[in-house]
Structures are given as structure tokens and as C-alpha cells.
Amino acid sequence: MSVDPGFTGRQDTRTTEQGRLVLNTEPMFIRTLLSRYADVQLRFSERPTQELRWQLDDVTYTLCVSTGTQSVRDALMAADRVLERAAATRSGDESQPA
Description:
With 98 residues, the protein is mainly alpha-helical. It has a domain of 60 residues. It has a two-stranded antiparallel sheet. Helix 2 packs across helix 3.
């Protein structure tokens, strides 16, 4: 997968309770992965090629590793939770007096 080379989000690792290695990623990285997944999924559904299949497999794998999941469905749900937490944190920060 080719993520924006200018991306500088944190990419530390952690281990889940099940012993899986997971990337701790910033919401910006998750947004980038979700955008890439949607783009490749759409292009693959319109015109399936081996190259797009590889790209889809690659971004799906990266989403799963990044979220500590084993299926794309679970990865998408976990990514939504990451973005929801980030939005809630932002909302809380904005409501605090300066």
C-alpha cells in the first residue's frame, strides 16, 4: 500500500489481549486507509483486475493490522471507533475555556 509519503502520524506498536501486534495509529492515518480502501474497492467493483485485487488485499491487510482485527468488516468498525473517539476528544477540547 502506498500511503502519502509526507504522513508523519505516530505509528508505535502494541499487543492486544489476544497477542496480536497492532499499530497505534493517529486518526489521520486511519482516515487515509479508509479513503484508500473505499477508492480501491470502488474501482475494483467497476473493473476487476489483478492489480486492483492486489491493492485491495494490501489496504485490507493494513487496515486489519492497524486496528488489531482479522476481517475487513471488523477493521472498518474498529476504524469508525478510532475516528469517533478522535471526534469526541476534539469536541471536548473545543468546549474547554482557553
